[in-house]
Amino acid sequence: MVESSSQEASTELPSFDAVWSRLRKLAGFKRQADLAEALKITGSSVSGAKQRGFFPLEWAYKLALTHQISLDFILKGVGEPEAATGIVGFPMQITQPCDPELVLVPKVKARLSAGTGSLETNAEIMGRFAFRSSWIRSKGNPESMVLMDVTGDSMSPTIEEGDATLIDQSQTDIYIGKIYAIGIDSEVFVKYVDRVPGKFILRSANKDYAPIPVDLTDESCNVRIIGRVVWWCREAR
Q: What is the pLDDT of residue 124?
C-alpha cells in the first residue's frame, strides 16, 4: 500500500463504465462492437479499456467531433449533452491537419510524478501535437496516446523534470526495463515497473529514491497501469 495525500485530485481519469453509459444514451450504441466500429478500432481494444476501467481521452475527442456531443458531457456528465454547431468543447486544433501523413496527439494538463506521486490528474486538453504517422504507428496505437509533462527528479537522468512524455494507453503489459505511467489511488507516477507475486515494484532511475512496493492484494489501494511511455522529449533550458 502506498500512502496518498488527503488532497483531492481536481479531475479523475474518466471511468469507462460511466462514459459508456452516457454514450449508449447519446450515440445510440447498443453493444461495445458499435463503439469499436465508430472509432474504427478492434473489439479487443474496447474490451481492454473496459478491463482497465478508464476511457481513453482520444476516443472521447473523436466521438465528440463525429457525433457532435459535448466533450465535457462525455467525460464528466456535466453541461448540455449536445455541442453547439461546429463546437465540441475542445480546442479547434484537434481537427486533422492538411497533411494526411500527420497524426495529432492531445497533450493534457495532468502531470506525471517522477517523485513521490502527483495529484495533478486534470484531463483538460492543453493542445495537440503533430507526429509523422509512419513513425508514431511504429511505436504503438496513436488513437490511445496522450502527452503528459513530468514533475520531479526521480527518473533523472533518463527523464528530467519538465520533459514531455508520450504514453500509449493500449500498452499495459509489464516488460522489464520499460517505463510506465501508473496510477495509485489519486496519484500518478512515471516509473520502471517490475511485477513480483502479489506486488508491483516501482523503480526510479535516480538511485537516491528507494523502490516503492505496491501491494496488489490490498483492495483499498486502486492501482492501474495507465500506459507505457514510448517516447519523451526535452526542450532546451
A: 66
CA distance 127 to 95: 11
Q: How far apart are CA 120 and CA 71, in angstroms?
A: 20
> Strands 164-168, 223-233: parallel, antiparallel or unpaired by DSSP?
antiparallel
Residues 6+ away with beta carbon under 8 Å from 174: 180, 193, 194, 195, 200, 225
- Taking 70 as the pLDDT cut, the residues of the chain under it are 1-13, 65, 79-100, 115-124
SS3 78: coil
CATH, domain range 9-90: 1.10.260.40
Q: What pLDDT is attached to residue 153? A: 93
Query: For 66-121, how does the pLDDT look when each residue is reduced to its tens digit (9 = 90+)?
Result: 777 777 788 888 766 654 333 233 333 344 444 567 788 888 877 787 755 444 44
State residue 180's pLDDT score.
Answer: 95
Instruction: Return the CATH number of 92-237, one of 3.40.50.620, 2.10.109.10, 3.60.21.10, 3.40.50.10490.
Output: 2.10.109.10
Taking the C-alpha atoms of residue 110 and residue 119, their distance in angstroms, rounded to an integer, is 8
Q: Where are the domains of the chain?
A: 9-90, 92-237
**pTM of the predicted model, to two decimals?**
0.59
Nearest by Cα to 4 from 226, 227, 188, 213: 188
Work out the mean pLDDT of the chain and round it to a whole number: 78
Residue owning grid cell 484537434: 94
Alpha carbon distance 114, 218 (integer Å): 23
Phi, then psi, of 147 in degrees rounded to 5: -100, 135
CA–CA distance, 183 with 86 (Å, rounded to integer): 34
